[in-house]
Design brief:
The complex is a heterodimer of chains A (845) and B (115). With 845 residues, chain A is an alpha/beta fold. Among the domains of chain A are: 4-108 and 240-302, FAD/NAD(P)-binding domain (3-Layer(bba) Sandwich), CATH 3.50.50; 121-236, 3-Layer(bba) Sandwich (FAD/NAD(P)-binding domain), CATH 3.50.50.60; 316-460, FAD/NAD-linked reductase, C-terminal dimerisation domain (Enolase-like, domain 1), CATH 3.30.390.30; 619-773, Sulfite Reductase Hemoprotein, domain 1 (2-Layer Sandwich). In chain A, 29% of the residues lie in helices and 21% in strands. Chain A is built from 26 helices and 41 strands. In chain A, the strands form twelve sheets. Chain A has a five-stranded parallel sheet with strand order 3-2-1-7-19, with helices on one face. A five-stranded parallel sheet of chain A has the order 9-16-10-11-12, covered by helices on one side. In chain A, helix 5 (182-194) links the parallel strand 11 and strand 12 (198-201). Chain B has a single domain (10-110), classed as Rieske [2Fe-2S] iron-sulphur domain (Rieske Iron-sulfur Protein, 3-layer Sandwich), CATH 2.102.10.10. Chain B is built from no helices and nine strands. Chain B has strands at 10-14, 22-28, 31-37, 42-46, 61-65, 68-72, 79-81, 97-103, 106-110. In chain B, the strands form two sheets. A six-stranded antiparallel sheet of chain B has the order 1-9-8-4-3-2, with no helix packed on it. In chain B, strand 2 and strand 3 (31-37) form a beta hairpin. Chain B is globular. The two termini of chain B are 15 Å apart. The chains are: A alpha/beta (845), B mainly beta (115).
């Protein structure tokens, strides 16, 4: 069987992964695919469902990728299967199949107690469930969750975030009974208590009672007590959705589920099952990793492969209520004769257990609560020799768990089934950093928990990146910043004499210039500083390919009066500058010769313009949409905020350029999430996103904080920017800086929200100094003959314009005349423009 | 295209006009020269960046590589040996170098045709 009509029932995470996997293996589309989905929206990330309550939008959870030759029928569940006619029936019609795949997933199990049908009782499974919970919670105070497992604790956190006082009822004697042991559960409970969530263990819910309004009001428990509850979430487990298969006469597993063999095929050779609905050799798996494995197996089989289910990796690592919890392998020590090594630290509230074979040589499994940093290495070591002594492995910083000790067959990335051998091969092929490894192997591209191991494997292979800035300084930019800041050094010559060697170069000189500027050391063209500047900063303009410069005046927030717009137009006309609107809502004027720059800026400064710092590694622009002032959808004044932010941070020098934007509502017309710091208005304040960028490696910014007041927002951005400026590497944008940070976004939050390093006062003072000492660089140049001196074409012929800058006319404006150098010799890069066809642009050959 | 061969020294500017570790452009017999002053020496090379064809080398950052005085093209950062004109990043690429000296506080340049 290698083609024909394929019907997939279900478009959950695994159903989608199956279609993706099949399309990758069947590039010619031999299988025509129809996906029948019950929900009205395409596949989304159910694992991250709770993020919906943290302000993550539906769109961000979306997992659906459209493919050619795949039709997706949303809101059209299958109702019956006729195996004789090979037809699936829906309310709309019939679909014939040559192959049929069940991907129907699970449903939430609701225990048989009275009152589960009452208004205010919900399950926690779909985005619709969550939307209903959010709507019902409005104006209510007390909630309860039935079930203290993984999903139950997620639901409890959701209720907490919705402002409800929350109780959790669990029938087992501990929280998360499936994943953790008694001691781990006890440690977890201490965290949960501290968050104000009350837990009731070892009791069952016997009934749900209604109040006078007919909605839910209380839970009755098996110990005779009752709990107030105006909203109840039932999270008591899941059951495979196997009714269709049952009705079609297919065999089921002993505890339900569509029974399949190790090839994921049912007793009917045309019918397969993947994900949570599949009872693989009798066992259902309620985790996404084994689900993905079944999807890969069936995709492979449908194109003639011989894949079999590799066995379920039940390892899990998650952050529940802010607590790291991990469980892997034989977590409960059920292997005969196995040994436990445990570590409990009530002070730091860390619990860890390793389960070892009877000879204590082989790692079988383990549980980690409070600190899961050792998880990636430990999980990859299951079934093999211990990578280090047990106590070293359990040390709270995970310092003993080094991926360098893993065997080649150990799986480093379980999300994408990448082994250490795969990673080593990629390194041998030239991958020299984590981004390259991610692109080449897909390791670390899903949950990201193995990223620290990728770094360790790079180290182990001897390709550790030196942090030395260049041949003149052995330290990184970050260390250099601290040296300059703490020792108060303000000249390059002293810095290189005391902390480096040689005369400097085009790498370290601009870095030091930027550090000095960030620390507020006077005008960038004063004294020795001028010689350190890259040509753009040296002339305060942007060098273009022909040796001319472009000029960008600041237009805060993209808001400009007609009068100022006319001035820009007049200047451009009088100096014959090519004029173009930029992506940052500003206007770029091209083709200025060095000696023209002061004349151009005299006119601009007189009209009230300031430097836009388009030439600097500095704040560029804060883009904005028109906001609630005009827009009928806007909820806050986005232009007002953008202008205020741009004026606050103008002139701030950084390791790389900084971009920002403010959107006045969730429609996000300002594209704030593609910026280093982006702000999106909410009904009650501002959401702050950090670490986005366009460019070579586009990246969406991550949600950092929600519903902030304007004052809180500005304080947060102040600290974010100064911390970035002080600690990032050379030319590292905010995205790479956060990615490379130990602990990532959580660490960043702890530093600038919780002040975990005690730095905030200092960061605030540094920004206050920047704001109070700002002065327009161009105005300062125009007022100073010494600074103006550099703006000459030739030192011995200041009246002769550079004869090599020549223009031609294109679409009514002047553009550089190409390849017409007076010396006549060819540039060595050899690019020529060649006409493609009449009236269209030429391309380089 | 032919280039005038000059064997005489041309006075360009006062030494004080040159910032240490920075360059300026000068026009000597119709040829664009990039003139640099380091802590203890003067250097003159063609102003034309041979990689891009733009006349910009005078605006590059002056420094050193392994003890060799250098300038980096401001366009794409190829580094040139100020003493020989050879590009240290691209084998076979070079800029013409010229003679530069200081006499009585005045900077003088003499064109060379080779290189």
């Amino acid at each position: 069987m290698s083609g024909g009509e394929l019907v997939v029932i279900g478009n959950g995470m695994v159903g989608q992964r199956f279609v993706d996997a099949l399309r990758a293996r069947d590039p010619h589309g031999n299988w025509r695919v129809t996906v029948l989905a019950e929900e009205g929206r395409p596949a989304y990330d159910r694992v991250r469902l709770s993020a919906y309550f943290d302000g993550v939008s539906e769109g961000e959870l979306n997992l659906h990728t459209p493919h050619d030759g795949v039709r997706l029928r949303l809101g059209e569940p299958a109702t019956a299967i006729d195996r004789d006619r090979q037809v699936v029936t829906t309310a709309v019609g019939e679909y014939r199949y040559d192959a049929l795949v069940f991907a129907t997933g699970s449903y939430a199990f609701v225990p048989p107690v009275a009152g589960t049908e009452l208004p205010g009782v919900f399950v926690y499974r779909t985005l619709d469930d969550l939307a209903a919970i959010r709507a019902y919670a409005r104006g209510r105070r007390v909630g309860a969750v039935i079930g203290g497992g993984l999903l139950g604790l997620e639901a409890a956190n959701a209720l907490r975030l919705l402002g409800l006082s929350t109780d959790v009822v669990e029938f087992a004697p501990r929280l998360m009974p499936v994943q953790v042991d008694q001691a781990g559960g006890a440690m977890l409970r201490r965290y949960v208590d501290e968050l104000g969530v009350r837990t009731h263990l070892g009791v069952a819910t016997t009934a749900i009672r209604s109040g006078p309004d007919g909605g839910v009001a209380a839970l009755e428990l098996s110990d005779g007590t009752a709990l107030d509850a105006e909203l109840v979430v039932v999270a008591a487990g899941i059951r495979p959705r196997d009714q269709l298969a049952r009705d079609a006469g297919l065999p089921l597993g002993p505890r339900g589920g569509v029974l399949v063999d190790a090839t994921c095929r049912t007793a009917d050779e045309r019918i397969w099952a993947v994900g949570e609905c599949a009872a693989v050799e009798g066992t259902c798996h309620g985790l996404v990793a084994p689900g993905y494995a079944t999807a890969e197996v069936v995709a492979d089989r449908l194109v003639g492969g011989a894949a079999t289910f590799p066995g379920a990796d039940t390892a899990t690592k998650l952050k529940l209520l802010g607590v790291d919890v991990a469980s892997f392998g034989d977590a409960h020590g059920t292997t005969e004769g196995c040994l436990d090594v445990t570590f409990t630290d009530p002070a730091t509230r860390v619990y860890a257990k390793l389960v070892l074979s009877d000879d204590a040589h082989t790692l079988l499994g383990g549980v980690l609560v409070g600190d899961a940093s050792a998880y990636p290495t430990l999980r990859a070591s299951v079934g093999g020799p211990l990578p280090a002594a047990p106590l070293a492995l359990l040390a709270p910083d995970g310092g003993g768990a080094d991926a360098g000790a893993l065997p080649a067959a150990a799986q480093v990335c379980s999300c994408n089934a990448v082994t250490r051998g795969d990673v080593d091969a990629a390194i041998a092929d030239g991958c020299a950093d984590v981004p390259a490894l991610k692109a080449c192997t897909r390791a670390g591209t899903s949950c990201g928990s193995c990223v620290p191991m990728l770094k360790q494997l790079l180290d182990a292979a001897g390709v550790a990146q030196s942090s030395a800035l260049c041949e003149h300084f052995d330290v990184s930019r970050r260390e250099l910043f601290e040296i300059v800041r703490v020792r108060g050094i303000r000249t390059f010559s002293r810095l290189v004499a005391e902390h480096g060697r040689g005369r400097g170069c085009d790498i370290c000189k601009p870095v030091v210039a930027s550090i000095l500027a960030s620390l507020g050391s006077g005008h960038v063209l004063d004294g020795e500083q001028a010689s350190l500047q890259d040509t753009n900063d040296h002339f305060l303009a942007n060098l273009q390919r022909d040796g001319s410069y472009s000029v960008v005046p600041r237009i805060p927030g993209g808001e400009i009066t007609p009068e100022k717009l006319i001035v820009i137009g007049e200047v451009a006309r009088d100096f014959q500058l090519y004029t173009k609107i930029t992506g940052g809502q500003r206007i770029d004027l091209f083709g200025a010769r060095v000696e023209q720059l002061p004349q151009i800026w005299r006119r601009l400064v007189d009209a009230g313009f300031e430097s836009g710092h388009a030439y600097g590694k500095a704040l560029r622009t804060v883009k904005s949409c028109v906001g609630e002032t005009w827009c009928r959808y806007g909820v806050q004044d986005s232009v007002g905020l953008a202008v205020a932010l741009e004026l606050r941070y103008r002139g701030l020098r950084a390791p790389h350029k900084l971009k920002s934007a403010v959107s006045g509502c969730a429609r996000e017309c300002a594209e704030a999430r593609s910026k280093d710091f982006g702000i999106i208005a909410t009904e009650t304040g501002w959401n702050l996103y950090v670490g986005g960028n366009g460019g070579f490696r586009p990246r969406h910014a991550d949600l950092f904080a929600t519903d902030l007041s304007t004052e809180a927002l500005i304080r947060m951005i102040d600290r974010f920017l100064i911390y970035y400026i002080r600690t990032a590497d050379r030319l590292q944008r905010t995205a790479g800086w956060i990615e490379a940070m130990d602990g990532g976004l959580d660490h960043l939050r702890s530093v600038i929200v919780d002040d975990s390093l005690g730095l905030c006062e200092d960061l605030d003072a540094a920004m206050a100094h920047h704001v109070s000492s700002y002065s327009d660089e161009w105005r300062d140049v125009l007022d100073d003959p010494d600074r103006l001196r550099r703006y000459t074409s030739f030192v011995n012929a200041p009246d002769v314009p550079d004869p090599s800058i020549t223009f031609t006319r294109e679409r009514g404006q002047l553009v550089p005349l190409r390849d017409q150098s007076p010396t006549g010799s060819e540039p060595t890069n050899g690019h020529r423009r060649q006409p493609v066809t009449l009236g269209l642009p030429e391309v380089r050959r | 295209m032919t280039q005038t061969l000059t064997l005489t020294w041309t006075t360009v500017c006062l030494l004080d006009r040159l910032e240490p570790d920075r360059g300026v452009a000068a026009l000597v017999d119709g040829v664009q020269i990039a003139l640099f002053r380091t802590a203890d020496e003067l250097f003159a090379i063609d102003n034309r960046d041979p990689v891009s064809g733009a006349y910009v080398l005078s605006r590059g950052i002056v420094g050193s590589r392994g003890g060799v005085p250098t300038v980096a093209s401001p366009l794409h950062k190829q580094v040139y040996d100020l003493r020989s004109g050879h590009c240290l990043d691209l084998p076979g690429v070079a800029v013409a170098r010229h003679d530069a000296r200081c006499r009585n506080g005045l900077v003088e340049v003499r064109l060379r045709q080779e290189g």
